[in-house]
Design a protein that fits this description.
heterodimer; A: 181 residues; alpha/beta; Rossmann fold; 5-stranded parallel sheet; 8 strands; B: mainly alpha; Four Helix Bundle (Hemerythrin (Met), subunit A); two-stranded antiparallel ribbon; 7 helices
Chain lengths: 181, 196
């Protein structure tokens, strides 16, 4: 079985709601994390990201100054900071399809609609640690591969140019570990 | 296709995009164990930590309701502006997201209905303040009466009626935007236990 040593990971929690920050901090400490940093808006979050260099960012969507989506777009700037590949988990009350797609297109790694639970948060963290996706860079996008699955029934044009090699088959590390276990 | 340095992220270049496999520094935190110690379940530990924190939740819920009420009062005294609209939306949105965690899951529906009313009305000055009042009063009443055994039924009825009125209003206000209307009437894509 796969196990995460949370005390080897640094987390940055960005949420303008102090209650939600406290809940997330409590859950992360419960998992075993020691290094949990907090910021209360997008600007402070970006500053904390640069300063603390967290391994995983957990961010709200709706925040003052700039929101979680804008924050993600700023982090996902190749060359603009030390780690544009950092996993970003968005925790939000938004659950509409349009919102989920917007978050995906901003480079969010995992999306979690509130209310949150310990189990759902753990699964998201396990996924980003054990099963990282490749990054895709195009003229208009830089972020985790938005294709989680290869759909054999897909009908439509191939939007990525490059022939057969363009289909990226991803065997999840977590699946490999499950088989091995 | 071009391969670059192996030490840095490996990059495969195609006609109009690159596929980048960055090193995974988080691998340092992974280990494999033959079986999980049932006394060392991180999810159970986190849930237990949350239970210990839960003594504070009713006060937090009250604080969130007070914030919602203040935002409503600001709308009534100053009218809808970008600032008052955002404050009201954020207060309702936070309640929607946190109510279940705080032990008030039946409040989330009314708060969600208020969020929809604010978010999807094209001209904020046309949002009926009386409908805002009804939502805010419903949220506060449900929280206040949450100890009563019949609260679930009352909350259901209130939420259902508020949703009906709100959806009817939004349908009318967005009558010239059929695509938008279709989008907002679609069911949510992401329940809390699902990712994209």
């Amino acid at each position: 079985m796969i196990r995460i040593d949370f005390n080897k990971l640094r987390f940055l929690v960005i949420d303008d709601n102090a209650h939600m920050r406290r809940i997330l901090r409590t859950l992360l400490h419960g998992f075993g994390a020691r290094d949990v940093y907090e910021a209360e808006d997008g600007a402070a979050g970006l500053e904390a990201f640069t300063h603390y260099m967290p391994d995983i960012v957990l961010t709200d969507w709706a925040m003052p100054i700039f929101d979680g989506l804008e924050l993600a777009q700023m982090i996902r700037q190749p060359g603009a900071n030390a780690n544009p590949y950092v996993p970003i988990i968005m925790l939000t009350g938004h659950s509409e399809k349009k919102r989920v797609m917007e978050a995906r297109d901003a480079g969010i790694t995992e999306f979690m609609a509130k209310p949150i639970s310990a189990k759902a948060l753990y699964q998201r963290i396990l996924n980003v640690v054990a099963n990282p996706r490749p990054f895709i860079k195009t003229k208009t996008y830089f972020g985790p591969d938005r294709r989680r699955n290869v759909n054999p029934n897909y009908v439509g044009p191939e939007r990525r140019k490059g022939g057969k090699a363009d289909v990226i088959r991803q065997t999840a590390l977590i699946d490999k570990a499950r088989v091995a276990g | 296709m071009t391969k670059h340095s192996a030490k840095k992220p490996s990059v495969a270049t195609y006609a109009d995009h690159e596929v980048i496999n960055p090193p995974n520094p988080l691998r340092k935190a992974l280990s494999t164990v033959k079986s999980m110690d049932p006394n060392d379940d991180p999810v159970a530990r986190a849930e237990q930590a949350l239970v210990q924190l839960s003594g504070e939740f009713s006060a937090w819920m009250e604080a969130e309701c007070k914030r919602l009420d203040q935002a409503r009062c600001a709308v009534k005294s100053k009218g809808f502006s970008k600032a008052t609209r955002e404050a009201l939306f954020h207060a309702a949105h936070d309640i929607k997201g946190q109510a279940a965690t705080f032990g008030y899951p039946w409040v989330a529906g009314s708060a969600d209905s208020l969020c929809r009313l604010i978010e999807h009305t094209p001209d904020m000055n046309r949002i009926p303040v009386s409908l805002v009042d009804q939502h805010v009063d419903a949220v506060r009443a449900i929280v206040r009466e949450s100890a009563r055994p019949e609260v679930l039924g009352i909350a259901d009825e209130l939420t259902k009626r508020l949703r009906e009125v709100t959806e009817e209003f939004l349908t009318h206000e967005n009558r010239d935007r059929p695509d938008y209307l279709e989008g907002i009437l679609a069911p949510p894509l992401a329940p809390s236990d699902q990712s994209f």
